[in-house]
Amino acid sequence: MDINQLNEHFGLPGVLVFHATPSGLIHADITTPHATATVYLQGAHLAAWQPAGHQPVIFTSRKTELVPGKAIRGGVPIAFPWFANRHDGKTGPSHGFARIQDWTLVFAALAGDDLHLTLTLGPNELSRSLGFDQFRLAYQLTIGRTLTMQLTVANDAGAPLVFEEALHTYYAVTDIHEIAISGLDGVSYLDKVDNFNKKLQQGDITVAGPTDRVYLDTTATCVLKDHAGKRHINVAKTGSTTTVVWNPWEDGAAKLADMDPTEWHEFVAIETVNAAKDTITLAPGATHTMQARVTVETVES
Ligand SMILES: O=P(O)(O)OC[C@H]1O[C@@H](O)[C@H](O)[C@@H](O)[C@@H]1O
């Protein structure tokens, strides 16, 4: 559907309006009674969410290139069917193909004060060229005072579907030096900045250098204590047993052409994932659902 058709079929005056970037990327601009948000059809990519009375919760880089076929830097990229680099000996784009494909909007409605959107992705030329031709994805977003992101994978093949997945959420923070993340105390992680060595988390996570950690076997809710504890962002999840925490720090950010050199101060990624030893093997005809649920609270001192 083009923009006119999207606005005609799904538009809700004052609540859901579709626009396009000069390069042709279509995005839904959303205003509910309790939040604003932006969702691009490419990648089903949530690029902004701000509940009323709060600062923006989702970070998107000022330098992201909004062009077809290029992953948006920030927001919530959906990684599928692999996380980070492909590791079956074949080549393919970082974090898979789902985040650089156009998804189809199939449902939009205001239910109470929340906007519900459903986008779908099936096999296409790119996915087939990478060996994935019998799957379907459905992404259900509920946008309001709470943000719910739910990804369902269906295996239409006669053989098992092996995949990794992530809701690679970039959270906006006041300053990376002032954050702490609780919920992963006692959880083992692979330290990607130390040759994937397996380590044990002790206490809260603070970020004081390049951080790229794959926490395994955890279904825990994480609390991102932002602005020296004045704001809490709660990230609860189901259907996910991996949590990734990532910040590239100064040197890593300098290597990212689509990130301003100072922006690494302004976000931390807490990702709802199934990867590494938590990779999913889905039986023929089966489905798998992973959900992240985000709430924000201001903490009185
Ligand atoms: O630059 P990309 O492909 O968006 O990936 C960003 C980062 O995503 C994180 O989830 C990975 O753990 C990192 O290793 C990776 O660098």
Beta strands, count: 22
Q: What percentage of residues falls in helices of 4 or more residues? A: under 10%
Number of domains: 1
Elements, N to C (H/E): HEEEEEEEHEEEEEEEEEEEEHEEE
From the coordinates shown, what is the CATH architecture?
Distorted Sandwich
Q: Kindly report the CATH topology.
A: Beta-galactosidase, Chain A, domain 5
Task: Give start-end ranges of low-pLDDT stretches.
Answer: none
The biggest beta sheet is recorded as: 8 strands, antiparallel
The hetero compounds bound to this protein are: 6-O-phosphono-beta-D-glucopyranose
Hey, roughly how much beta strand do the residues contain? 35-45%
Number of helices: 3
Task: Provide mean pLDDT, rounded.
Answer: 97
Morphology call: globular
Given helix and strand content, the structural type is mainly beta
Keywords: Isomerase
Pfam families: Aldose_epim (PF01263)
EC number: 5.1.3.15
GO molecular function: carbohydrate binding; glucose-6-phosphate 1-epimerase activity
Kindly describe this structure.
The chain has a single domain (3-298), classed as Beta-galactosidase, Chain A, domain 5. The longest helix is centred in the N-terminal third of the chain and has 8 residues, at 3-10. The chain is built from 3 helices and 22 strands. Helix content is 6%, strand content 43%. The chain starts with a helix and ends with a strand. Strand 1 and strand 2 form a beta hairpin. By secondary structure, the protein is mainly beta. The chain is globular, with a radius of gyration of 18 Å. Strands 5, 11, 12, 14, 15, 16, 19 and 20 form an 8-stranded antiparallel beta sheet that branches. The chain has an 8-stranded antiparallel beta sheet with strand order 6-7-8-9-22-18-17-13, with no helix packed on it. The protein binds 6-O-phosphono-beta-D-glucopyranose.
